[in-house]
Amino acid sequence: MRHHWLFLGACGWVLLILVFVTKFISHRAVDEYEERDGGQIPTVSGNTTGKFQTLTGGKPDSQKPDQQRDQSSAATTMSEWDSIVETRLQLLLAVCKNSSLRNLTHIPISKFVLDRIFVCDKHNILFCQTPKVGNTQWKKVLIALNGAFSGVEEIPENLVHDHEKNGLPRLSSLTPQEITHRLKTYFKFFIVRDPFERLISAFNDKFIKNPRFEPWYRHDIAPIIIRKYRRSHRDSDLRASGLHFEDFVRYLGDVEGRRRLDRQFGEHVIHWMTYAELCAPCDIHYDVIGHHETLERDAAHILRRAGIEGLVSYPAIPPGITRYNKTKIERHFSGISKRDIRRLYARYQGDFHLFGYPTPDFLLN
Ligand SMILES: *[C@@H]1O[C@H](CO)[C@@H](O)[C@H](O)[C@H]1NC(C)=O
Ligand SMILES: *[C@@H]1O[C@H](CO)[C@@H](O)[C@H](O)[C@H]1NC(C)=O
Ligand SMILES: *[C@@H]1O[C@H](CO)[C@@H](O)[C@H](O)[C@H]1NC(C)=O
Ligand SMILES: *[C@@H]1O[C@H](CO)[C@@H](O)[C@H](O)[C@H]1NC(C)=O
Description:
Blueprint: H1 2-32, H2 65-69, H3 72-97, H4 102-105, H5 111-116, E1 117-120, E2 125-128, H6 135-146, H7 157-160, H8 176-185, E3 187-192, H9 195-209, H10 216-229, H11 237-240, H12 245-253, H13 255-265, H14 275-279, E4 288-291, H15 295-305, H16 326-333, H17 338-354, H18 361-364
Parallel strand pairs: 2-3, 3-4
Antiparallel strand pairs: 1-2
Helix pairs in contact: 10-12, 12-17
């Protein structure tokens, strides 16, 4: 009889643990595609082409780009995408030359920037990390390509962001000569999305949903922002309700007041710093700047241009996930004063111009 109860008790525990683990895994999976409202989990549905298949035994040398271009219909769409990517780079160059945007676009290639760039020496690739734009997937691809793991599936989650151990070094860890050589000769890319949508994503991910269990955003950073930027302190309960998007917007748009706080917040600010500050695109000549809104096309393009398309494929992207959602933006900014939104835009307009995102007039006027 006693054994019966012990057995039942053990089953209960196993069940509890299973429930917890499943919940954890589904959170991770959501995080892979960064924040989104539906909370859908990307499904793979047994399609091995769609799955994150890495290192399937294809030899790098057998994948000559020229052979790929011969495939008729693919060839037309590819060259069409080549010209879209080229147009983006031309726009970037033009905006980099605009002197009135100079201090928003020209960023010295500091250690901070070199810390953002990851090195795949085996395939001569540099990848600049821009959080909230699907970077985890790219990091996994590069970790697998670097050879420390035989496939993307084998990379433990906690290792993806542990750059001491995952075989994906930061550019800053190399000598100045090694850095210069790689910046000159390697294939370089990063991904952007609509700057305001990214801020909303960072806000929801770090202060509302917090899927990676990072308590410092809500417990350390949020109270400091609230203390300085919340309009009304009358109601002490307000503080308990957590950071509001309005507080966040006021903090981000406050050029002077932000400096001291950002030093205090350390590396965590990478989630809302501008793309220009993270990757210095006017001072480093990137080969491709992918757009999250067209991720499927851009991922294919990047894999091809980097010469790794035979080795790895980007996972199937659930339809609609990466689409720009104006309603979501309007909803987040509703009730926030025009003055605060305009200050925010002033701070982020370099990113809007550099990467060809239209000015969000519907919020500013
Ligand atoms: C598998 O995924 C690939 C790439 O996403 C797609 O082209 C193909 O049609 C899919 N096949 C099936 C059977 O779903
Ligand atoms: C430079 O940027 C400013 C601010 O967006 C804009 O008003 C101006 O037209 C730009 N100048 C050129 C030459 O593009
Ligand atoms: C850009 O420079 C101008 C003048 O040098 C300064 O007033 C402004 O605050 C700077 N903007 C930023 C975002 O640093
Ligand atoms: C856009 O965002 C709104 C509000 O967050 C949401 O209700 C809607 O489903 C989203 N639309 C799409 C197409 O994802």
